[in-house]
Design goal:
alpha/beta; 4-stranded antiparallel β-sheet; single chain; 8-stranded mixed β-sheet; 10 helices
Amino acid sequence: MPDSLVEIRGLTKKYALSSGFFSSEKRIIHAVDNIDLTIFNGETLGLVGESGCGKSTLARLITRLEKPSAGFVNFKGENIFSFDKEALKAYRRNVQMIFQDPYSSLNPRKSALSIIKEPLTIHRIGDKKKRVQVALEIMAKVGLKKEQASRYSHEFSGGQRQRIGIARALVLNPELVIADEPVSSLDVSIQAQILNLLKDLKKDFKLTYLFVSHDLNVIRYISDRVAVMYLGKIVELASNRDIYNRPLHPYTRMLLSAVPVCDPRKKEKIIRIKGEARAENEEGCSFQNRCPYRADICEKQEPRLEKFDEQSFCACHMAGSI
């Protein structure tokens, strides 16, 4: 078993929302709800779930762009939320993020070279000549040409812009890269190029990835382990092979059944999600209102994420019996 790089324990993030324009009452939303998760050194952990389930909030908590309501994140055994200014700066050298939208995540007033070498300037690494040299080397690694260094972001295609974003994330030689839906806004053919690039860079730079996506095909291609998230909770965690060949949680089964199959001879039944999501103050399982396998215990007791076998964890009372 490889060493753990990131350990997340009891991580919770709540937001207070107004109930309405004429109401002073606040509604509490658990964007991330008491999550325990470990990211091992050198792996790609895929985080999958529908829009609004809390994936991006979790990513922002790990990068300390958000502060938690409860819980902690340990990076190499140290709680990142207890870091002082200097320790936080060092942490941000080691943990970088690739953002979803390559159009809005790049400064339109700066050239590609300036964007890529900016982290080196902020962290005061090398002199001006060395920064340019390192930035150009990273550009070559991600498939950008030296002649493109002086161009601005609007002069690049979507795929090229995402390559700039990847180069910016890697220029500090981080240990953990959090990729938040990095290919969702790209054409399918370009998606394949970027995914292959990320795989190659992982080997070259000895990276660890947390790869966030709602696309199960993308997650299947790039991940070693997969965590399935629903309403702020991890409901299943298993190896790539086990998630796709033997899903334990009903929600995972529903997600997989909705993935299009290219073979016309295969006619798989789509398990449709029906009903409304559980209210915040409702007892029992968070998936009970939509689950076709619901039992009496599901209405009374919320399932915990528990070990099912050597590599699989599931938060379902019916795990293994469906």
